[in-house]
Amino acid sequence: MAGFAxxxxxxxxxxxxxxxxxxxxxxxxxPNATPGLVKxxxxxxxxxxxxxxxxxxTARQGADASxxxxxxxxxxxxxxDDLVKILLxxxxxxxxxxxxxxxxxxxxxxxxxxxxxxxACGATLSFxxxxxxxxxxxxxxxxxxxxxxxxxxTRTHTELLDLAVGEAYAKAQYDVxxxxxxxxxxGPITDxxxxxxxxxxxxxxxxxLVQHQASVNRDSGAAVICAVESCDLSLLRxxxxxxxxxxxxxxxxxxxxxxxxVEVAYHMxxxxxxxxxxxxxxxxxxxxxxxxxxxxxNHETTCLPLIRLLLEKGGANVNFEDGKALxxxxxxxxxxxxxxxxxCQPSVPSLKAALATTMGxxxxxxxxxAIGLLLKATSNDPAANRYLNSIAVESAATALDYRILQFLAxxxxxxxxxxxxxxxxxxxxHWTTPTGLQVIQYLLGMGASGSHVDKAFCQAVTTxxxxxxxxxxxxxxxxxxxxxxxxxxxxxxxxxxxxxxCASLVNSFIENGANRDxxxxxxxxxxxxxxxxxxxxxxxxTLLEASSIDVNFQSGAxxxxxxxxxxxxxxxxxxxxxxxxxxxxxxxHQAITFPLNEDTVLRLLDVLSSKGGPSCCPDYHAVTxxxxxxxxxxVATHPTxxxxxxxxxxxxxxxxxxxxxxxxxxEEPATILVRAMMPFPGDKVASTGVVEAxxxxxxxxxxxxxxSKTTPLILAARQRRADMVKLLIKAGAKTDHRDxxxxxxxxxxxxxxxxxxxxxxxxxxxxxxxxxLHQAAKNIHSDVVAALIKKKHDVNFPSSLxxxxxxxxxxxxxxxxxxxxxxxxxxxxxxxxxxxQVNVFDQWQGxxxxxxxxxxxxxxxxxxxxxxxxxxxxxxxxxNVITIPDPETGLPRYMSPTYFLSESANKGNWEMxxxxxxxxxxxxxxxxxxxxxxxxxxxxxxxxxxxxxxxxKRLQDEREKRYNRELDHEQKLRRQWEEGQNSTxxxxxxxxxxxxxxxxxxxxxxxxxxxxxxxxxxLSNQVxxxxxxxxxQTASQQQEALRQKNQLLQQDRQNTANQQQEALRQKNxxxxxxxxxxxxxxxxDMRKTAFISERHLRAEQAMKLRFEKQSNQEKLFMMxxxxxxxxxxARQSQT
Length: 1135
What we know:
Protein name: Ankyrin repeat
InterPro entries: Ankyrin_rpt, Ankyrin_rpt-contain_sf, Multifunctional_ANK_Repeat
Number of helices: 57
Shape: flat
CATH class of the domain at 768-944: Mainly Alpha
Helix content: 55-70%
Strand content: under 5%
Radius of gyration: 64 Å
ANK repeats: 554-586, 708-740
Structural class: mainly alpha
Organism: Apiospora kogelbergensis
Region (Disordered): 1052-1071
């Protein structure tokens, strides 16, 4: 009760406090309240009929209208204004949500007074994003919208007012727009409304918006740009009053260039200039103004004031975009405009661009006038004037304009200007035309000379412009003739200079002092042109007659060209003109290495070998840098030409010369016969005729290379060249020779499957069992296998070669053959091996051929072939097993193919294993897995032979007997141990029962003491209650207390009994678990005993506290009853 009211100073409660406490008890707020407590509250005048008495303040406030939301909105919609005013009172009036919704309804329906009352009474204007104001505008209630915007506090809602401006302008409610602006509307919608007003030509609205600070800079100055686009000066003045930024003014002035009415554009630009626009944008407008419209004189007159305004008042830069304004004025032939522009300080680059454009004008008068104006612009700057004069001369010369050059020559032209003009004129493509030559002649007359004239002369010679050549010949230096000769011959495919009529021109160049290199280069190009069919021999003869000619120039390049073309006549002509030994030797190598036909090469060799004395014959033994001996070059280029080989042998070439080759993997010295057995570039091979010619030339057929120890015969066998094998054997080649890998020619022929070569080698001297049969079996050459077996090669021979590692031919086939898609060939090869009495159960590393096939990279086809040919009869033979040591014990374990496949082979390829299993099962293969006789069989052993199975059965029987004996002994020991455990457990149970008995005695003693205490307390209470008038009530309270105490005692007893039962259950469980759990049971029992003792102590303390608390409450009640006896008696009589 202390939580609800505080007693007065005299310890009593007021009637309000007592009534509140009584109400709380009746509501269940005090679960342990007793009748005595209720009686004390009634004695304190607690009212059982009212929660509290209504005060005068409540009566004055009236009813609470906050719970009548729906009714309030109906009152707003259809009720009188007075009713709404009453419902909007400050105390217990309509809630805030009703006020906000009521304002929305009033605005929607156009109730001005109600809207004002709602706003005055706290309705929120921003409710639902200003829905009231928006709905009033959308419904056309302008007076309501104005009333809302005119209310106090509206200025703080600038975003809502901004939205309202857009809505009101769209509805043409201009008074509402004005009211919103006066209330402080700001924002993007207001700014966009200004743009819309400009577009709609609503000057009054635009002025109003600008006056109320609508931004004219929004969206990159859209308002100002729209005003310019409207061509309405009044609108432009209005928006300029909004103080546009410089960027806005710049964008607006650019729009003026699009106005077709020049006068309007003039006035608008003038207004913008007054507003402060300046800078490059005016230069851009100037260019745009000049770039549009017609080219007529009248149009220039119309645009001239605007251009003057931009230049004088706007300060437009005539150098903008490299003087584009000047260029446009020249293009349009607007002389007055050009005159105005050149007085605005144009730069030299701008004047240069204008001059270049001026040269393209068709009318000479305008061109001359414009050039005069442009040149006059730099009259105050001598350096710039000289530079501009040079530019003018250069432009006139580039345009090949003879009249302009004459006009410019009226002023003094410097020597540099003349040279610039000459260089510019000759840089054009048409300067050799009559018009161009007129300009060239004029410039030569003005003093043009030097390197530029020499260069022009070379150009004329290159293009064979005879008129230009004749004109310039008298002005060039002596060195120009050499350059001209080099220029004319630079393009050897140019047929013009090689024509007969030009021979005299070439001769004149030589006579006029063309240098040695130029003449020699001319000869090279003349030969190239002649052999290409575009030139004549006459020019070559002319050049060969020159005293400075040297046919050995550039290592005999002219002879090389003639040889590559196969032209023996020109080659002969050149050889007669002083070719030296080095040149002739190089020509010889060129003739045999260049891919020409056989007859052409023979003809060239005849020409080279029949000239003059020995000093002019080639050195047939010489090897040019980066090349190999001549015979090697010849065979590599012409591998099928036996005539060339014989011709080289006749000429005395060294046919046995050694050179570096790579027959195997290392470069080493070799002869031509070794190289002829290998393919040449382009997969070309030497023909039999070539090899016969080499053999006839006494080339050693038994030559052995230094490192690989190979011979031509071995190489021929490797390349499957049976024709070469036959030819070499016939020539006496050794057939039993072996290379560095201990491989013979028969080995390579068998490996390649060349049956013809194998038969040839088998007829000659050879070594048996040299691995040839293994290679033939591995590569599935059944015919070769049969031929080798026929010649006594043993099918059971374990080859000691490193690649065979002691496997037999059948094992090599099973383990290493690539038999994908070749099942028939594999079967044929196995049949051929079978004819040699093969032992199928021979093992390599504990595996026979069938097990090796299972480990092949393509096991299915080779396994199928073995099963179908040999192993189908022997599949379940006791010998058809693999021996694998046990990984733990190291003892041998035997596995059949199916078991081996399941345990070891191809574990990473499940699908392949399934197919192999199916393949083996088709031949009735069984699982077998066991240890040798006399050993313990592994777990999962299956398919044991009879003798091993009997021995294993005997061992199992012995193990079972031994196990039974050991089991009986263990059971006997266990029974003895259990008997000892039971006796110990019985003793422990006695101790536990003794402890439980002591616990029960202690509990009964506690219970007895509690009952005695309760009886004493009960007697004292009865005595005390008999002395008091309220003894009956006190007795009932004591009985209730005793009942609660008994309940607690009973609960404690029950808990003690439950705990004892739990302890007994735990002890029984411990008894069943045996000796290992006894220690744990004792520990738990000790914990339980301590817990029970603690609970009893806590119960005693709780009972003492409850008795003390109950006694204190009773004493308090008794004291209160003594203080008010009369009231208690009256209340008791009423009750």
